[in-house]
TrEMBL record:
Transmembrane segments: none annotated. It comes from Paracoccus jeotgali. Signal peptide: none annotated. This is Hydroxypyruvate isomerase. The active site is at 137 (proton donor/acceptor), 234 (proton donor/acceptor). GO terms for molecular function: hydroxypyruvate isomerase activity. Residues 21-249 form the Xylose isomerase-like TIM barrel domain. Belongs to the hyi family. InterPro entries: HyI-like, Sugar_Epim/Isomerase, Xyl_isomerase-like_sf, Xyl_isomerase-like_TIM-brl. Keywords: Isomerase, Pyruvate. The keyword Transcription does not apply. The keyword Isomerase applies. GO terms for biological process: glyoxylate metabolic process.
């Protein structure tokens, strides 16, 4: 079974951010994601990760703002300079944290102009950072209306056009269910492109296994595919984080 990481933007947020690393470790996670590390001191985050023996698995490009700001600029033709500045900042933070992946968000847009802009920006970014692993993630339109990267076939088209080994798919099972209603089928079609997996129950985005996704079958398919990457828990705990963690013990026990 792949290794589990905790998304510290959503999990353990009963605690101050620097205490979440050790709490995730105690709970059995081996790595963490932090979607928005930009308002935090990178040195302190790095120290907290090292002290608790956690790998930093993923950060997002700035801004994006969980509280409702713009969700990236990669597909916004008028904001190409902004995209490049933000990407340079993401690279600096990813390097400081030894983060494994950087998720590049498209922002809002539609049609050929947005697609061509995203392809051009990703070509630039993959060449600018050949040793970084970059990802794009289809995100459902219910949660982010107008978001450009909202479909797996579109993601495949963009990945094929960029054609860079350091760019892959971020497969969030929650979004896959919300977009296609068929997580397994979507994995079968696109699993070979995946650099990083995230999970949550759907609908509701609470603990995995709460909701309609058959995670036992999904994990089985992931194992059979030979996927060697991380699986990050990115959900809103129904009550406290600790109270909802039995899903992970069950999956580890099933190994
Ligand atoms: O699924 C999500 O919402 C995230 O992975 C994300 O990056 C949005 O900011
Ligand atoms: Mg996600």
């Amino acid at each position: 079974m792949a290794r589990f990481a905790a998304n510290l933007t959503l999990l353990f947020n009963e605690l101050p951010i620097l205490d979440r690393f050790a709490a995730a470790r105690r709970a059995g996670f081996q790595g963490v994601e932090i979607l928005f590390p930009y308002d935090l001191a990178a040195g302190e985050l790095r120290q907290a990760a090292r002290k608790s023996g956690m790998d930093v698995v993923l950060i997002n490009c700035p801004p994006p703002n969980w509280a409702g700001g713009p969700r990236g600029f990669a597909a916004v033709p008028s904001l190409q300079d902004r995209f490049r500045r933000d990407f340079e900042r993401a690279l600096r933070v990813a390097e400081a944290l030894s983060a494994r992946h950087i998720h590049i968000m498209s922002g809002k847009g539609e049609g050929p102009a947005a697609r061509d802009c995203m392809i051009a920006n990703l070509k630039w970014a993959t060449a600018r950072a050949p040793h970084a692993s970059l990802t794009i993630e289809p995100i459902n339109q219910h949660d982010m209306p107008g978001y450009f990267m909202c479909d797996y076939d579109l993601a495949a088209e963009v990945l094929d056009a960029v054609d860079a080994p350091n760019l892959g798919l971020q497969f969030d099972a929650y979004h896959a269910h919300m977009i296609t209603g068929d997580v397994l089928g979507t994995w079968q079609a696109h699993g070979h492109r995946v650099h990083h997996i995230q999970i949550a129950g759907a609908p509701g985005r609470h603990e995995p296994r709460e909701g309609d996704i058959d995670f036992a079958a999904f994990f089985h398919a992931v194992d059979n595919s030979g996927y060697q990457g991380w699986v990050s828990a990115e959900y809103s705990p129904r009550t406290t984080t600790e109270a909802g963690l039995r899903w992970m013990a069950a999956d580890i026990a099933a190994e």
